[in-house]
Design goal:
single chain, mainly beta, 7-stranded mixed β-sheet, 4-stranded antiparallel β-sheet, 52% strand
């Protein structure tokens, strides 16, 4: 099992920045990728960004590209999401997730991730 703990959420104004963190513990040795998803009220959970440990590559949803940066430290089993130029439409619960299995490129669907954090609320007001 893998446990994930997120932190760093909060309430900010449009244009502000926030940094989310997520640390994995437990059976982390076979983790292939760590990513972030988000879920706004009344909407389905959607992919935000992912970093693949085996290739060291990062991928982003179009809606956050250029504003969000995912980074991580595989040795510390920690991933970060630096969010800048935040907009009200970024308001959501943000979830960290771990994918155990390798895939060419990346996986943007939640069903491809085996472990999830409890989520952290990000609220952006205008």
């Amino acid at each position: 099992q893998v446990q994930l703990v997120e932190s760093g959420g909060g309430s900010v104004q449009t244009g502000d920045s926030l940094r989310l963190s997520c640390t994995a513990s437990g059976r982390t040795f076979s983790n292939n990728a760590m990513g972030w998803f988000r879920q706004a009220p009344g909407r389905e959970r959607e992919f935000v960004a992912v970093i693949t440990w085996t290739e060291g590559r990062t991928y982003y949803a179009n809606s956050v590209k250029g504003r969000f940066t995912i980074s991580g430290d595989n040795a510390k089993n920690t991933v970060y999401l630096q969010m800048s130029s935040l907009k009200p439409e970024d308001t959501a619960v943000y979830y960290c997730a771990v994918r155990r299995y390798y895939t060419s490129g990346y996986c943007a669907h939640e069903s491809g991730y085996q472990y999830w954090g409890q989520g952290t609320q990000v609220t952006v007001s205008s």
